[in-house]
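Allow me, if you will, to draw on your knowledge of protein folds for a short while. I am sending you one protein, given as its amino acid sequence and as whole-number tokens for its backbone shapes. Kindly check, if you would, that the fold set down in the tokens agrees with what the sequence suggests. The record follows directly beneath this note:
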Amino acid sequence: MAFSRAEAYAPASVANLGVGFDILGMALEGMGDRAIVEFQDSPEIVITDIQGDGGKLPRDPGLNVASVSARALLDQVGEKRGLKMKLIKGLPLASGLGSSAASAVVAVVALNKLLDEPFARQDLLPFCLEGEALVSGYHADNVAPSLLGGIILVAGITVDAIQFLPIPDELHLALATPAVQVPTNGAREILPKQISLKTMIHQSGAVAQLVDALHRGDLKALGAAMEKDKVIEPARAFLMPMLDEVRARAKQAGAISVFIGGAGPTLCAVCDRQSVAEATVSAMKSVYSEVGMRCDARSVRVDRRGAIVLDAR
């Protein structure tokens, strides 16, 4: 069936889940990006509009993650027509919520529909990674969950390196995103280049405990494993305003644990029911309110669907 216009949605995601640097990611429901793509006769990709970014994202199609990912797909299928693209950002930039990944994913999913879906959903991963690489390199810990949904173990950048992990039925999350930006590239540059064998063994064990906890549906063990990071959080903690205070306040409200979402500054609290998640949202937000810092906070669950097509005609 021939389409001339398609619209898609891609959810937010959080990477690492504490101890799983670059190898674990989780899709989040209720927030994400949308894109509308249309064919045009000339071969260029034109970004006609970006909403919700405050004018900060590049309109140059060679520098925008959405258009770079779309170009990779167009080139792969040999499509000579270009695109008009509109991007609606529902995610804050440099927030630790997978904003760039969602933009890359949503453009590719919309374009795949426009092309009458020559690729299965999981096979779109390489095209999404081309855009994501512009801002954070070739790793799929945000792209894969945004594209496919769920909690994902990402052992590489190919489809066969992706493993879906169980989602505990009672898993709820409380998110707090203070009004500061933490660009991914900068957050990566401050990480240690080497770690000791002892630290490597500890970190590997914690990742194994996290995966085991997911398989058993044990939220207390899951939360404990998430907070065992001895490599990434210690290096990045100073970038997260009020991290210790938020963690303490969240636990007072009943949260099991708190971890940094991706590069941050979003902090994610693990909770075992909706009422606790809502109380934790209020508790986390109060920490920032007391110091006069704006903060967006909400309770969410894991997005199980991943990116979806909203409309095609």
Summary: The first strand starts at residue 5 and ends at 15.
